[in-house]
Amino acid sequence: MEEMSVLSIVPEIPRYTLGLDIETKDVVPSSYILAIGAVLYDNHTLKVIATWRIDFDPNDPEQGNRTVCERTVDWWNTRKPGNAFPSQQAYDLTWNGTTKFKDGMQQFAKYMNENPRNGVTVVPMRGPDFDYVILRDALKDAGINYRMPARNLDSHRTVERVISALGIPPASENEVQRWWKGPEPLHHVAVFDAAWEGYETARMYHILHCFRLLGYDGTMEMVKSWSEAAKPLEEYTVDYMAVYNKMRAGRAFEPEYKLGVAESINSSHGEVKEVFDQLGKVVKEVKASHIDASSTDTAPITINHTPIEKGSEK
C-alpha cells in the first residue's frame, strides 16, 4: 500500500464570528421572543466590528400564537445570587421593548443578510438547538423568506469544553473591558450574552491557529500577556494571512509545507519543531492588522433601550 501523504492548507479559520443570542418566554421552537442580540468579531484581531440588538414588545398581539411557559416566566421573576437567574436590571432591559414582532423579524433578516457570508462567518450560540430553531420558526411565523444556514453554526458550550481541555486561561478582565462597558456583566441580556459567546468563540479560533504558528508554550505566553493593561490587545494578536504571505514571500520553506503541518504522517517531531521555529521568527516581525479600519468600530458595548445600528455603538 502506498504511503498516504497529508498536506496542510492555508490557515482557513473563519474570518468572522457573529455571536447571536435571544431571550424568550419559553424554551420550545414556538417561543415568544423578547430580545435578539448580535455582535460581530474579526477573528484575526479579536476586535468588535459591529453590534446589533432589538427588544420586542412583551405584550404584542402579533406574538399571540407564540408560546409562553409559566416556569420560564417564573425564572425571569426569580432573583438569586450568581448568574443562574437574571438580575432586576437584566429583567428591566429585556421586558421593556417596544418593537412589534413582524417588523423586528424583518429587521433581523435584513441584518443577517448584511453580514459577511460564503462560509467566512461562524455563528455561535449558547445552544444551537435553542436559539437557532426558535429564530427559524419565528421567521417562518412572520412570513419572512430567509433561511439561516445550519452549516455556519457553532456551539458556545463546545467552545468552553475545548478551552478547558487545552488548559487555556479564561478571558481576563482586561479582555472583557475591550468589548463591554459597564459596572458589571449583564447576563441574560441578549446583546451581552451574544458578545460573550462571540468573543470566546473568536478567541478560541485565534488561539488554536496560534498553536500552529507559535507552538503551545508560545501561544500560552501570548494569552497570559492579554491580561496586561499597558498595551491594547491588538498588539499581541496575530494576523495569520500577514504571517503566511510574508513567510511565502521569503520562501521560508517549500509550498508543500504550510503553517507548520508536516508533509507526511511519518514526518519527525524535529521537522515540525523547525517549522514552528521559522514561523516564530516571522511572527515577531508582523504586526497585527484588521479589516478596513475606517469602518471598524471597536468601542465597548453599552446598553440602552433602542437597537444599536450596525457599525455604531452608543
Main beta sheet, described? 5 strands, mixed
CATH topology of the largest domain: Nucleotidyltransferase, domain 5
Low-confidence runs of at least 5 consecutive residues: 1-11, 250-300, 302-314
The top level CATH class name of the largest domain: Alpha Beta
Q: What level of helicity do the residues show?
A: 25-40%
Percentage of residues in DSSP E strands: 5-15%
Order of strands in the sheet with the most strands? Answer: 3-2-1-4-5
Query: Count of helical segments?
Result: 9
Categorize the overall geometry.
globular
Q: SSE string, helix = H, strand = E?
A: EEEHHHEHEHHHHH
Rounded average pLDDT: 76
Q: Which architecture of the largest domain does the CATH hierarchy give at level 2? A: 2-Layer Sandwich
Gyration radius, in Å: 22 Å
Number of strands: 5
What would CATH call the homologous superfamily of the largest domain?
A: Ribonuclease H-like superfamily/Ribonuclease H
Number of domains: 2
Structural class: alpha/beta
